[in-house]
Request: fold
Amino acid sequence: MKRSIFILTLLLAVTAFSIAPVMAPCPPAVEINKRLVCNTGEGYSDNPPYYVGNKYYFWIEIRVDAFVDLEDVVVYDRLGAELMIEGIFDNEADKIANRNPPWNYNFDFDYVPYAWDGEVWINGLMEGHLNKDGVEFDDFTIFWTGNSVKVHFMWNVGSMDAGETRMIWLVVSTDTNPAGHQEYTSCGCYELNSGATVKAIVASTGKQVSAESDSIWIEVVCD
Reply:
């Protein structure tokens, strides 16, 4: 009798386990993606060779997709010390559709002189300095830290509707290193960027959500 009760209990336990609902993963509220294109002087290419000691310009597409109504959407990014910001091109519907980089900027950066705590000029106006206070303009905040002048970038996207896409092109170039040599100074693989992060608030619930993009790696070769 005791054995029968034990077998019945075991069968009930197995049955309960087998009919337990399987929880499907929740769809994301927001996604962020980055895509790298390099201008080598011969046009755009997804994977050109990069040679030690040369100066290069990179167009980095930062794209945010909302799947629910969002508020307080902010993108954070940090560039390597070997990069400097040349300009920003902000969102236009035709650029999202074509996925092609434009040939000009909305915001054009100049540095006078380009050294620690030097002046930062944007569209011909002196906006700030290469330090922790940095510059704040339009929807963007940028500041610089350390002797190698690392770039910290923030994009205040604001509110987004479900199904909406916002996109910018962040245009950067290879900088000189603290020793005064043009990056890159040695062969190998480099992480241009560890990936951008987006944070937002779901409008209907007040829940904070976030997402990260993949990092960007390139290979530098010797002449």
